[in-house]
Write a structure and sequence with these properties.
Blueprint: H1 2-26, H2 31-57, H3 78-102, H4 105-126
């Protein structure tokens, strides 16, 4: 059970970071790309809130959200904003992959769905797909 809680807490941390990241992304975009960023932001807020409840349902206290983040690279315009969105989605997909590996039943299904959604958003931001999105760093 501890492995499941640890994986869910890591996915929660990834969702916290995604919400923050999409705030940065959205500030550098306009038009339909900004609408895409809003959709990603809203999706990650919903997943974050669901994971807070999941952690509590598992009998643990949800990890607190950090007060700030260091971005992996400078975001200065639309191109780097899209790259950050893809980066965020790949990391979220990886975190949910860990939940899929450790959980069973409905939690595993929810994590697989979240992983798929993040991978699809990453493809949209990147403009192309990669094999096993989010899993490269876990090889």
């Amino acid at each position: 059970m501890n492995a499941v809680i640890d994986a869910v807490q890591a996915a929660l941390a990834a969702e916290y970071a995604a919400v923050y990241g999409y705030g940065v992304v959205g500030g550098h975009l306009t038009g339909s790309r900004q609408a895409d960023a809003r959709q990603g932001y809203d999706a990650h807020r919903a997943r974050r809130d669901a994971l807070v409840r999941t952690v509590a349902d598992l009998g643990a206290s949800p990890a607190a959200e950090p007060v700030g983040y260091t971005l992996p690279f400078s975001v200065t315009g639309p191109e780097s904003a899209a790259r950050l969105a893809a980066y965020v989605e790949e990391h979220v997909a990886g975190a949910y992959g860990d939940v899929v590996r450790t959980a069973l039943g409905g939690l595993r299904q929810d994590a697989a769905s979240a992983m798929r959604d993040a991978a699809v958003r990453a493809v949209r931001w990147r403009g192309g797909s990669v094999a096993f999105p989010g899993l490269a760093e876990r090889g």
